[in-house]
Amino acid sequence: MARLTAILGVFALSLAGCASTSGPAIPDDTGPLVISKQGSFFVGGRDIHSNDLSLLPAYAPSGTITVDQMYVRYQIPADAGKKKPVVFIHGCCLTGKTWEETPDGRMGWDELFVRRGRPTYVIDQTARGRSAADPSGIVRVKGERAAASALPQVFGAAQEGAWTIFRFGPEYPKVYPGMQFPLEAQAEFWKQMVPDWLNAQPTPNPTVPALSQLAQKLNGAVLVSHSQSGIYPFQTATLSTRGIAGIVSIEPGACPAPTSDMRPYAGLPILVLWGDYVELSPRWAPRLKLCREFVEAANRAGARAEMVMLNDVGFPGASHMLMQDRHSIAIGNWLAGWIERKVPQ
Amino acid sequence: MARLTAILGVFALSLAGCASTSGPAIPDDTGPLVISKQGSFFVGGRDIHSNDLSLLPAYAPSGTITVDQMYVRYQIPADAGKKKPVVFIHGCCLTGKTWEETPDGRMGWDELFVRRGRPTYVIDQTARGRSAADPSGIVRVKGERAAASALPQVFGAAQEGAWTIFRFGPEYPKVYPGMQFPLEAQAEFWKQMVPDWLNAQPTPNPTVPALSQLAQKLNGAVLVSHSQSGIYPFQTATLSTRGIAGIVSIEPGACPAPTSDMRPYAGLPILVLWGDYVELSPRWAPRLKLCREFVEAANRAGARAEMVMLNDVGFPGASHMLMQDRHSIAIGNWLAGWIERKVPQ
User: Which residue in the set B45, B135, B157 is minimally distant from A154, CB to CB?
Assistant: First the structure.
């Protein structure tokens, strides 16, 4: 089995090299990286006044805090040229860490795309990671100024349930044959998971207007979303198509309804990308079907949308966390090649 | 006033250049940066079982989550040589963002120290930022399986109160004369603040054993802490001195009591660093006094401890957020020079 995996890995890597039309595929083992500029900033945010910030004598109960801002970390390679930036948007119960070094210690897509000459921007969704949540609801209830029902709808994803959602196998701890997530490093992966405030957020999620603001600031960016955030780039395009150079939605929790307004997607390069075992999953199979219907509807309205199953392009065994799978670099090289072909500079 | 500030800034920068003993001071305006390796990982963490993870049908209420892990992002410069790494530890209500690009868009100390040839490791304290908190207490109370008093002691720092704590001025919105924090970018700074779970954590804070584990993994590191985390490197040394090459505590919320066991600090290079206006602050002046007593006690026990007021080495006007002040690069160059002189390679 290990041998088969190794063979498949080599096969995938060579295919990825073929698929790329500009520049060689980046190997796992790399030399020095030259950055022209890097840093981090916030997009969006609004000031609110709260009387429920603290029950501690050292910190005032009342005052102003800023919420709904989105943390963004970026790196611009020395040889960026005119290539459009990529914005990486993580999914449920995770943070921007999703796109960084993999649980088994390999390069993340954040660096891979920089090495492919593309500025990369990695965000933390609002109310997650380094993007602040509003503590007022918790403080108010603990201080007995509101009922328990006023608490934010926060949840944690149990590892046993996430195992199935991330399609490591049909149910914990069974593993799909040939599945490529590095399970030997799963303890490091579970540490990536954080409490999720999604359901405590207004609609649309404040991440969406922040993405629109970021795309416009960048004057053209490819929005790459994953899972829970899969629909965000489409929602962003509905707000405004300004600044959106392309959309890559990796295993989206939802695609736009095929009956919805398709005009925002006219002319836009769109990729909906899926890993393996999707048809075996009661959670994911219906989503795949709806996304296929969306892609067809979008193309009828003039979009340049594709749905790609990684199995069909030489990468079998991909889990839901495919940017961290053993063949993540090969998949990333393939995706970078797709963007280079489809998104005009 | 603007002219005086500009003059002071130039004065500080030139002094910083003089203070450094190895390598030139890094200017604000820099060229390409060459990284030999970068990435992120977690240190520490433990699995817990919870029956209060979710009230949502899509996510199971019961299962395993990992808590108390510490997120670490690192960059190793191409010319690192044998210089000891620096670990940057943020303070109250903030995350590792503290050390990244400043609110007014200048290089952070995370990059400055890499440019000085030193590997840098930036952490998020446990239960903060990208380091997961445990949502069980919130879910349990919202699900009416526990009383409101079981909620975690979470708080947010109001901007008006933080203004005084960070010593932008004696009280909001007054400004100390010559104070160097870039207040024109304060809106961007307030976005850095996140809810603080410190008081919902066990003692010692799980960040402390995680720092010990990190220092040992790095086989020698300088722990640079700030404010609320100011005491963490000392607590880490009390657990074990292994891997601790030096301690820099910037404006600590507390120093170890001078009557406590000083043996962990014997032979250790220690710097307790302070900005301006400290004696004017009822919150900070007593802490300064106690830290001075600690430094004297540590030195009697064989430590190589110093307390430095930035005013005395040519950097007046430093706020509590001195790593983001207008003269942050000059101060960072001075600090890098101190480490180069005091910490053996």
Answer: B135
Taking only the tens of pLDDT, chain A with its 345 residues reads 333 333 333 333 333 333 334 456 776 667 899 999 999 999 999 999 999 999 999 999 999 999 999 999 999 999 878 899 999 999 999 999 999 999 999 999 999 999 999 999 999 999 999 999 999 999 999 999 999 999 999 999 999 999 999 999 999 999 999 999 999 999 999 999 999 999 999 988 999 999 999 999 999 999 999 999 999 999 999 999 999 999 999 999 999 999 999 999 999 999 999 999 999 999 999 999 999 999 999 999 999 999 999 999 999 999 999 999 999 999 999 999 999 999 987
> Cα(B283)–Cα(B299) distance, rounded to whole angstroms?
26
Q: Do B42 and A191 touch (CB under 8 A)?
A: yes
Kindly provide the ipTM of the predicted complex, given to two decimals.
0.93
Interface touch A156/B54, C-beta < 8 Å: yes
Put simply, the answer to whether A41 touches B95 (Cβ < 8 Å) is no
Residue A135 and residue B195: Cβ atoms within 8 Å?
yes
pTM: 0.93
* Alpha-carbon distance A68 to nearest alpha carbon in chain B (angstroms): 9
- Chain B: nearest CA to A79, how far in angstroms? 10
